[in-house]
């Protein structure tokens, strides 16, 4: 019998605390620091993916120089010695160095050949409909997802001008007495945003960019429909 309880000087070791890892459905490629609150019932921080790649531009010289240098080296790698003597529809690269093992998805087009980028990069090359459609697609995305811009615009594709030309011919034949296109016409689909990816309804913008191909000259011009001013401005480089 002891008047005082015996004191044990040895302290019991605590088990190693388990570091809880998130499950496969909670893992995000954009989040690397997981806290203790991570779990199936926990709220996660919002993740906003980049909607368009226009984080810089080449006009104001505020662009990613290392990224531009990598692209410039890539587009020049494997070129033929006299690549500049080739026509725009001919191969400019050495054999087996122009095809991609996996096609590049540019939203409205799959690219599996390097010559497509060659025609965009080097001077004096002709741009076809696919080049213009891709450029205008990303301009359309920039206009739709860019926050804080006061310049409201959208774009169309290369087919639009041909549709307008066909309506104009009908309009001339009818002497302008009746309408040539109702709201169910393909032009109405463009206006309502049904025709293209990342489209914006025309009543939400001030300007519409229209590419126009002058076939006789192998040349592109830009028509801008100003909805507020009810006029069409044509720009020629």
UniProtKB/TrEMBL annotation:
One of its GO terms (biological process) is proteolysis. Keywords: Hydrolase, Protease. Residues 1-24 are annotated as: Disordered. Belongs to the peptidase C48 family. It comes from the Eukaryota. Residues 109-237 form the Ubiquitin-like protease family profile domain. It comes from Solanum commersonii. This is Ubiquitin-like protease family profile domain-containing protein. PROSITE patterns: ULP_PROTEASE (PS50600).
């Amino acid at each position: 019998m002891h008047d005082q309880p015996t004191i044990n000087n040895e302290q019991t070791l605590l088990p190693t605390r388990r570091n809880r890892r998130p499950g496969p459905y909670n893992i995000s490629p954009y989040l690397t620091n997981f806290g203790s609150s991570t779990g199936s019932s926990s709220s996660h921080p919002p993740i906003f993916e980049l909607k368009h790649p226009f984080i810089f531009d080449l006009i104001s010289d505020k662009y990613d120089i290392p990224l531009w240098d990598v692209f410039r080296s890539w587009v020049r790698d494997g070129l033929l010695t006299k690549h500049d003597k080739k026509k725009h529809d001919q191969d400019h690269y050495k054999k087996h160095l122009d095809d991609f093992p996996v096609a590049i998805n540019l939203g409205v087009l799959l690219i599996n050949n390097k010559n497509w980028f060659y025609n965009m990069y080097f001077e004096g090359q002709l741009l076809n409909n696919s080049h213009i459609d891709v450029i205008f697609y990303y301009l359309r995305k920039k206009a739709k997802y860019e926050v804080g811009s006061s310049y409201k615009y959208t774009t169309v594709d290369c087919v639009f001008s041909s549709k307008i030309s066909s309506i104009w011919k009908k309009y001339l034949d009818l002497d302008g007495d009746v309408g040539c296109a109702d709201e169910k016409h393909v032009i109405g689909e463009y206006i309502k945003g049904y025709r293209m990816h990342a489209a914006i309804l025309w009543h939400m913008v001030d300007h519409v960019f229209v590419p126009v191909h002058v076939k006789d000259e192998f040349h592109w011009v830009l028509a801008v429909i100003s909805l507020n001013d009810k006029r069409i401005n044509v720009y020629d480089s």
